[in-house]
Specification:
With 127 residues, the chain is mostly helical. The chain has 2 domains: 9-51, no CATH class; 59-126, lambda repressor-like DNA-binding domains (434 Repressor (Amino-terminal Domain)), CATH 1.10.260.40. It has helices spanning 9-20, 32-51, 59-69, 74-81, 84-91, 99-109, 123-126. Helix 1 (9-20) packs antiparallel against helix 2 (32-51) and helix 4 crosses helix 5. It starts with 8 loop residues before the first helix and ends with a helix. The relative contact order is 0.11. The mean pLDDT is 91.
């Protein structure tokens, strides 16, 4: 097997290219190609965990995206939060999401709570 540790960006790009060859026809587990695919995938994940920083999304942008992509509405968010004005204040960054709000939204819409918890600036803080 011609697999090697990934120490550099060039090693990483090589591994990505190798794994990409398997995307259309993923090899069966337990075969030589299947083992190679699994080892390369593990090496890539490890390299990304150590070297690739994934920025946290703004929780309010996550809510806006959820409303748009899940076919939800601001009225449905208002129902979850208890009032239209509260939903509007949250979406306009005039009010922070509370832990209870995060839990309610997460349970109702299936959004992982950890994407709703990062700190974000309120509108008045950025003015």
């Amino acid at each position: 097997m011609d697999v090697r540790p990934l120490h550099t960006q060039q090693d990483y790009e090589w591994a990505l290219a190798e794994v990409a060859r398997y995307f259309d026809h993923q090899p069966a587990p337990g075969t030589d190609d299947g083992d190679r695919f699994e080892v390369l995938s593990t090496l890539i994940k490890d390299y990304e965990d150590r070297h690739v920083e994934i920025p946290q999304a703004d929780p309010i942008e996550v809510l806006r995206f959820a409303i748009e992509s899940m076919g939800k509405s601001q009225s449905e968010l208002a129902d979850l939060l208890g009032s239209r004005s509260r939903a509007s204040e949250v979406l306009n960054k005039n009010r922070r999401l509370t832990l209870d709000m995060m839990r309610t939204i997460s349970a109702a819409w299936g959004i992982p709570i950890e994407v709703l918890t990062p700190h974000y600036e309120l509108a008045r803080d950025s003015a």
